[in-house]
Amino acid sequence: MYALSKRLTDAYSRRFARAVRETYREDEAYASTPLGRLALWAFLLLLLLLPFLLGPYPMYVATLVAIGALSALGLHLLVGGAGQISLGHAAFMGVGAYAASHLFGPLAPLGILLGGLIAALLGLVLALPSLRIKGVYLAIATLAFQFLADYVFKNWEAVTGGIRGRTLPPPQVLGLSLDTPERLWYLVLLFALPLFFYGKRLLMTRAGRAFNAVRDNDLSARVAGVDLTRVKLFAFALSAFYAGVAGGLLAQLYKAVTPEYFPLSVSIQYLAMVIVGGAGTVLGAVLGAFFVLLIPEVLNSFVGALGPEYAATLAAWRNVAFGLLILLFLILEPLGLVGLWGRIRNYFRTWPLPY
């Protein structure tokens, strides 16, 4: 009886349990169980049907959050994956946005891809200081790049349009004008889904383990045979590519590009997404983007509902409330939203017999 029970339990675990992995291929799979694959396909179907379920403004916010999550994932791969700090993420988004603004209409998808590639090349240049410095010194180096990029955005008028910026016509795909957030959503999915799957797969492979080794202790990683130069260059280039693509998509959403879209505060905002979401997983970047981008929209709606006579008074307090929410969350949940989600998932996974 015991042998039969053990055999049935093992068979159930191999088929349905997430903790059991028999091969490296199963360990690197996006969903290694039937229930996981069903949930994944259901989620992808929901993404495709989302424009038919939401109105124009909620769809605009959803598109904005998806673009923000893509950019946050790029910074997560650099900070949470390879342990390299960066305060110039918004500059890479600006590079991608300005590059994409020169290829519009039917060439818009090519412009978005080109913006990501140009940002990746600049990421390789910015990665050079990381080979000699780290920590706060690396943060200062990336901060200098942010200030330099902001100066270029405002003064290189032949390329960026200066302070006035550049305007874009709606992108076109197969003759269809993507002039609404509902239609632009599918262009965002065209870039976001492959990049999200690649980012998740990367962290589960040998390259991802090299990232984690450099993050935890670069000297020990070097002794173990990890090529620090290659890992750091690749991490910066990949992070910049994600930011450049997200910047190009953001330009298509706003239909304009100005230097005010990519200041230092945006870089800090994306760093907050990684910290609030929880560095170490792709899910953390997504949850952090949801929290940081959705909470201001909720506060805006709350202030607007109180009436115009209170809007001016409460506008400044909205930012104070947002900052307090982040501080309170980090104090109560230092592991981020991923840690909170993990405890909730583990509770229901063992309920009603937690022991």
UniProtKB/TrEMBL annotation:
Keywords: Cell membrane, Membrane, Transmembrane, Transmembrane helix. It is a multi-pass membrane protein. GO terms for molecular function: branched-chain amino acid transmembrane transporter activity. It comes from the Bacteria. The keyword Isomerase does not apply. The keyword Zinc does not apply. The chain crosses the membrane at residues 35-54, 60-79, 110-128, 135-153, 183-199, 231-250, 270-295, 316-341. It is found in: Cell membrane. Coiled coil: none annotated. This is Branched-chain amino acid ABC transporter permease.
